[in-house]
Amino acid sequence: MRARSLAFLATAWFAGGAAAQDLDHACRVASTYDLTVKPEALLFERTDVAPRTVRMHGGSLDTDGRPVALRPDEQDRVALFESRVRMLVPKAKAIATDGVDVAARAVRDEASAAAPDAVASGDVDRVLNARVADIKRRIAASQSTRDWQEDAMRAYAQEIVSDIAPVLTQDVGTQAMQMAMSGDLQGAAALRDRVSSLTGGAQGRIVAKLRTALEPRVRALCPAVQELEDLQSGLHDASGRPLALLEPGE
Questions:
Q1: Is the pTM of this model over 0.85?
Q2: Which among 15, 2, 5, 7 is positioned nearest to 212, based on CA atoms?
């Protein structure tokens, strides 16, 4: 059961490893739940440990399909928790959306170094713009943090790289062939190596740029996430266990 960095709200953060651990430490909260934001309710889901589903709406609380009896003050806290989540979700989506732009710029920079002619022709920008627009549409339409979390965001970065790879390969392949035919085998090999470096190892470099660009905005969500941890304090599931949508981060 893996706790997600900055709980289910700051899931726009998709830089793993030490940076994510640093953020967990700063915010001191994490979550093992995925969140689906529906018009009629918030739905928290996980597969390993009960309660596997938690549903909130208008001050009511269900866990694993069973209603939880709440005092009036607890109903108020559940309603406020839901309200705060709904206010924070657009901020998390905005970070994810901007992260796509950061990733696209990083890929373009890599492409400029590997195959400047392909960038100058406009082919790279055409492919990049189409993929970025598609990913942004998917994030905007999504109701689930599964589409903003680390694995999804890394997949988006890989989609961008995969889209431009054929453009670069074709451009560099033509140049390399011309160089080889003129006898410059070393130059031809160097061209191919630059494209291989982009398509094979760019993701780590892109993620490093994402960490730098997005970390301050993710950290800015910490107080709001910590407020949610305070609001859930004292709440229980239908079996009487403490509700732990948010847990202390490592």
A1: no
A2: 15
